[in-house]
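Need the bound structure for zinc ion, inputs here:
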Amino acid sequence: MAEHGVAQIWRKIKSMYNIIGNHCTTCNTYYFPPRPVCPKCRRKGHLEDYKFKGLGTIHTFAIVRQVPEDFKTQAPYVMAQVELDEGTRLTAQIVNCDAEDVSIGMRVRACFRKITEFGHGGLIVYGYKFEPTMKVTGHKR
Ligand code: ZN
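Answer from helper R.:
Posting the output first, comments after.
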């Protein structure tokens, strides 16, 4: 990939260095990604931008072993649905622990890291990943 292409993508990702969603002050519901209209309140809803604290719990997860050729070095990795403390869920990769050590209910926090591979086979690139808040016992590396 050409250098300038990487720089362009990197600028774009920097704007994702916070988990920004929104919050309906009418029904006290948080949304990520942000919604243009609160689906519960419709026109009565009042949405404000909200920066999530980045703390949550693993709701479900999957260990991904089959990855595109270019990603072999990262396999296996864990994709999880994280329930943020504010009550909304998002999908993210879990890092800084072995795939076997990930469990439902594990406390995680958002961490932001440089992403080194882009766009192959329509891969969705997120600026954030999640890591355990506590050091996992039995961690081998
Ligand atoms: Zn609402």
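Comments: Residues 21 and 34 are 4 Å apart (CA to CA). The helical segments are 3-14.
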